[in-house]
Amino acid sequence: MKKTSVNIAIFFLTILFGCKPFIVDDLSDHESFVPNSLPFHTLKLSKISELKGEGQNWSIVGQVHSDFTKALHMKTKEGTGILINQPTTENRAHIFSRFKHGDIELDLEFMIPKGSNSGIYFQSRYEIQLFDSWGKEKLTSKDCGGIYERWDNQKPEREKGFEGHAPQKNVIKAPGLWQHLHIKFKAPKFDSLGNKITNAMFEEVNHNGILIHKKIEVTGPTRAAHISDQFELPRAALMLQGDHGPVAFRNIKYKLYETDTLYTSNIEYQYFEVPMPITKLPNFDTLTPKVKGKTTNIDVNKLSQRRDGIAFKFSGKLNVAIEGDYLFDLLSDDGSSLYIDQKQVINHDGKHDFESRKGIINLKKGSHPFQINYFNYTWGKGLWLKYEGPMQELRTLEGLYPYPLNNTKKTLLIDPSQTPEMIRGFVNYQDEKRTHAISVGDPRGVHYSYDLAHGSLLKVWKGGFADVTEMWEGRGIDQLLLPQAMSIELNEHFVASPLKNKMTAFPLKISKDIQPLGYRIDNKKRPIFIFKYQNLTIEDQYQPDKSSTGLKRTLSINGDSNLFCRAARADYIEKINEDFYSVGGFFYFKNLGESHPFIREINGLKELIYPLQKDNKIVYSLFW
Predict the structure, then answer these.
(1) Neighbours of 43 (CB within 10 A)
(2) How many alpha carbons fall within 13 Å on the CB side of residue 320?
(3) CATH pick for 261-399 out of 2.60.120.260, 3.40.50.1820, 3.55.10.10, 3.40.50.2000
(4) Which of 179, 236, 414, 483 could, after both became Cys, cross-link 487 (CB 3.0–4.6 A)?
(5) If one looks up domain 42-257 in CATH, what number appears?
(6) Taking the model in full, what pTM does it have?
(7) 422-444 pLDDT, tens per residue?
(8) Which backbone phi and psi does 303 adopt, to 5 degrees?
(9) 111, 133 in Cβ contact below 8 A?
């Protein structure tokens, strides 16, 4: 097996099972896999003893689903991977992590049923509220994602609760669906005598992909019955609330941070002025430096004597406090490269190579020689080296961001008023840029993006329609249309595919027999997407459902065929009541037409499949 394959395999084992971090020992192989960030530690949730608690209300299960029409309803199946709280009058204890944390980055999913209430307490003291706030417009700190208020019995009645922070937006899904939280928390800091010198801070709170808090200080512990004192600490356990309502958690991942683990010293530089044009790093051995010197900081702008046609060679010592894997991120305009211990870690060469490049290396405690080579052809000039390591979040090691920080873009938002808006533009789907996409915004506030080439619904959302800033401002490098609100990506389904029988697997790509013909506009200005199959015509349309809480689809064909439509795909599809299915806990599905789907299992996944028939339109709605 090639070393590249070994590194990839070990990295994914680390992500999935929390194994020992991998070591890259040969960075001359430019095909070696480099992640975008170092892996999180993962709570495996295979047994309850991975956490610390005294109540019987917490357990480990394999699957959870909830009927969103019933208060506090949760139904489970045996297995592992999900932590669930089902409190009773006698058992309603909290549960704690076995690790103690200061600064932490936490990533998890949670499910809360109708009417339930729970919370995540950082250092067992500072709460992010979990609550069924679905559909609520006026938010307080008591709503989902809120930083819960503090409490002082000595204050007047209306002022006892204070310092609560409502989320900036309500991005909660319907009860019984899995939701995502990503939180960066800074612990309070203390001097050598134990005096607090810095308050705790929620640096970022992202709920379902939307930023709802940024740099919110908390001057003391949240109001909570379990805290017998108001003391704050440098480190304490993470706590999940157990004395209120049912709640489930899965995919709990974290990174613990301390102080800086790397610093540079003894930096020397050689400055070169080179003939133009220059499109890649020069051979420094053939050049005579114009200036040699020492510097405490790598700043190519201050050290340069002109803008165009210059190059640098920096060398020095890289001092490592904690042994482990270090991920380096080198951004430059124009080209650069990084060497540590005479090994090339990053090759970021080439004129106008604007993309950030990363490299990973295992470093032992102590001092290591490093070298950075750099050149600039013309126009912008800059060099910026960041790193992430054990117990250390991403930070700048040397240099400055090479582009103006005050170059803020004017936000360009599109919202439909009287009739639907349709915008052709690139759309991100599962980290892939889809180029043949159209996004449709409806005045009733339910929107979607659709792949015209595949006949596939990519994502759906409610609220504001489109942020087109990246399409038009500046150079429009990304050229992406972004939803203004929380969106749900759907497991890709083609408009239809010819199958031999009900158990034939769908192809990886749309059949060449199905030809997209564009779309026509109905009398309400909504698009109807048209496809040709042999001598038949398929029509595919989407619009808000009656309550404007979801999206309704209507699919029809004008003749008999062997075509099938895949309406949903997930690791499980459960019927939760007479009308609705839960699709993997990501969204709800309801059949509305005379054609009825069947559920099948293919390659370990459940699928909802419709036969496409002449006389029976396929009609269903998605709800979240």
Answers:
(1) 22
(2) 21
(3) 2.60.120.260
(4) 483
(5) 2.60.120.560
(6) 0.88
(7) 999 999 998 889 999 999 999 99
(8) -85, -10
(9) no
